[in-house]
Amino acid sequence: MDDLVAGLAVGREGDDGPALTRMGVQYLLVPHPATDPLTKVLDASPELTRLSRTGTFAVWRLQATSARLMLLQGSTVTPLSAGRVDARVQIPPGTGPRTLLLAEPADGGWRAALNGHDVKARTVDGWAQGYDVPTAGGEFELTRSMTMRHIWVVIQGIAVLLVAVLALPGAQSDTLMLAAEKERRRRGRRGRRRAPRVPRARVHRELPSAAPAEPPEPPEAVEEPSTEEVS
Between 20 and 30 A from 201 (CA), which of 64, 144, 155, 194? Predict the structure, then answer.
């Protein structure tokens, strides 16, 4: 789509307009047209018709027919009525192969049935959802599975509820207190790791000095026998 819009913006000749209508685009709006040089380019484009212009915006309409649901047969485009999501329409008989184009991205969420029978889907223009329609035509019914949408809605609701709970004053104070407590503990661990080790003082205990030994007593004098006793 960006390339097609850029082609219209520079006045490129080709099928940019019809290609945009196959994407469901019917109108172009330019804000502040008096100062935007794109205004003159769009006015000169043969694929566009200006509908209105004010000092705030200007609107152009693509001449090719566009709709959310289109029946394609060669270069003939027939718009069909469709709701915002689902569609039920009567397709008239035709004279050749036809394609039913839905201006929505092709994915596995769409289900189509023709006369009560499932219709095989295919990708059109490299991105859009399409279905082959037989020449007999019939009642075409298109539905969209909302399972994934419901899942996303539930996830978004849980996220919003969590943000609302965290925004409460009590939750904020508890969160700040918890963060402060974690920071205090972290700094405490860091301080203990960086604190220098103080060597333990060694205590020398002096043993009491031994009491001085008493001098040994002198041996008793042994009296030698006299000569008289010997004789």
Answer: 194
Dihedral over Cα of 28, 32, 36, 42: its sign: positive
In one-letter notation, the amino acid at residue 184 is R
Q: How far is CA 9 from the centre of its chain?
A: 32
Question: 179 in helix, strand or coil?
Answer: helix
Please write the tens of the pLDDT for every residue from 81-131.
Answer: 888 889 999 999 988 889 999 998 888 788 999 999 999 899 998 888 999
Q: Are residues 153 and 141 in the same domain?
A: no
Residue 142 CA to residue 113 CA, distance in Å, equals 7
- Altogether, the residues listed in the chain come to a count of 231
Residues 40 and 95 in one domain: no
Whether 16 and 74 map to the same domain: the answer is no
Residues 100, 122 share a domain: yes
Return the structure tokens found at 48: 């566009």
